[in-house]
Amino acid sequence: MKVLNYANICALSIALTLTAVGCRKGQPPVTKIPNGGLNGSDTGPGSSGTLGSGEATQMGGGPTSDINPDNMAQDRTAFAADIVYFDYDSASVKGSEESKLAAVASALKTDSSADLLIEGNCDERGTEEYNRALGERRALASREALASAGIDASRVVTRSYGQDKPADPGHAESSWRKNRRDEFVLLHPK
Question: Higher model confidence: residue 171 or residue 5?
């Protein structure tokens, strides 16, 4: 009798594990942020976010944004030198990183036809759901800094990859430091 109960518990555990793991398919879900997301209200009650879904979470540029990075020409080299790095467990833009955001803002002011994708990333520490939310907060912090520099927030879309796209696959602070970042992708109509 005890063996039968143990076998049932094991079978149920395996089934739940397989259900929870699942498969990643398709494009990341798109989430519109109320009020453009500049006040961080996107993670509160009533949010339409899909954090922790195991895929990148993409935030819209606000209620009127029609930016779809997947349907635009993406230039990942334009801002390769302007990657913004963050401290551990922080979404605050450091003073040492502000000049990089100023360079991005300057380029966007020069090219009014361009839009921007900000990709928020984290190191491997923390749960997948927590890191996805932290990557989102980091991308939104850079977006807010650009808005403060005069860039229309509707020209900027954010996407969080959490820990899924490490710049350095190592498992030490020297690697983690490189993975806590925002990357900027210049977008043009095709």
Answer: 171
